[in-house]
Amino acid sequence: MKPQKVAIVTGAGQGIGLEIARQLLESGSHVILNDLEQSLTDEAVASLAQSGKGAVFGCSGDSSSEQVITELMNLAMHHFGSVDQVVANAGITLFGNFLEYSREDFFEVARINQAGTFFLTQAAARIMKSQPNGGSILLTSSVTAHQSHENLAAYAMSKAAVEMLAKNLVLELAPFGIRINTIAPGATMTERTTSDPNYINTWSKLTPLGRPANTTDIAAAATFLLSDAARHITGQTLIVDGGWTSISPSPYG
Predict the structure, then answer these.
(1) Which run of H or of E encompasses 71?
(2) Which of 7, 42, 54, 136 is surrounded by the fewest CB atoms within 10 Å?
(3) Which residues are catalytic?
(4) How confident is the model at residue 11 (pLDDT cuts 50, 70, 90)?
C-alpha cells in the first residue's frame, strides 16, 4: 500500500482553497491548511476532519510571512515527515483605477500574491529536493493574467508573475523530481462572489459554457495537476473558465 501524501494548502478557510483541501483528503492525502483568519481555519479543520480519509491540521496567519511558512513546513515534517503537495492559493484582490492606484495597495498585492507565493514555494522545494519522489507544487493564478479586466492592473500583473515563476522554476526543480504548475480560474461561485446578487446572471451570459465555475470545478483541475496522473506535466498553466478567455467579453458591457 502506498504511503499517504502530505499536502499544504494556503488560503483554504473557504472557497477554492477549502475545496482543494477537501478533494486532496478524498484522494488520500493528509492536509495542513492555512487561512489568515483563525475562525475560518478552525471551521475548515472541523469540517474536513469528518471525512475520515486523512489527518487535518490547521495553521492560521499571513501565509506570506516567514513565520507562518516555517510553521507550515514544521507541522508537516513533525507529524508526517514529508511535504509532497503544496498549493499556494492565498491571495488578495484590491480593485482600483490604474491612474489613481496607491503605492500601498500595489505593494500589498505584490507582497501577498508574489512574495508569498515565491517564498512558500522556496520553502517547500527545499524539503522536496531531498525526498526520493520529489513533490508537486501548484500556484493559483487567474484569467486576468491572460486577458484585460478593468481596475485589476496590479492584481493581473501579480498573477502573470506567478505563472512565469512556475515556468521558470522548471529549470531548477525538475532535476529533483519536483513538478510545478499553475491553475488560472475564471469567474467562480465562492462566498465572496455570491455576495453580488448579479454575479451568477452576469457571468452565465458571458461564459460560453453557460455558467460560472463552482469551487468543485476548480478543485478537480487542481487535484489532477497535483496527482501522479499528471506526472509528466510541469511548467504549465491550466485555465478553467468555461471558455471565457477565448472570447473575453467584459462584465462592464
Answers:
(1) helix 66-79
(2) 42
(3) 155
(4) very high
**Beta strands per DSSP E along the chain:** 6-9, 30-35, 56-60, 85-88, 135-140, 178-185, 188-189, 213-214, 237-240
Closest CA to 72 of 11, 139, 163: 11
Inter-residue contact 161 to 182 (CB < 8 Å): no
CATH T-level assignment (fold) for domain 6-247 = Rossmann fold (3.40.50)
Question: Cα 103 vs. chain centroid, distance in angstroms?
Answer: 25
pLDDT of 58: 97
Residues 6+ apart with CB under 8 A from 86: 7, 8, 9, 120, 121, 124, 135, 136, 137, 138
Which three three-digit cell numbers place residue 153?
492592473
Instruction: State how far the Cα of 242 lies from the Cα of 180, in Å rounded to an integer.
Output: 23
Helix, strand and coil in the chain, % to nearest 5:
50, 15, 35
The per-residue pLDDT for range 207-238, each reduced to its tens digit, is: 999 999 999 999 999 999 999 999 999 999 99
Report the pLDDT value the prediction gives residue 162, as an integer from 0 to 100.
Answer: 98
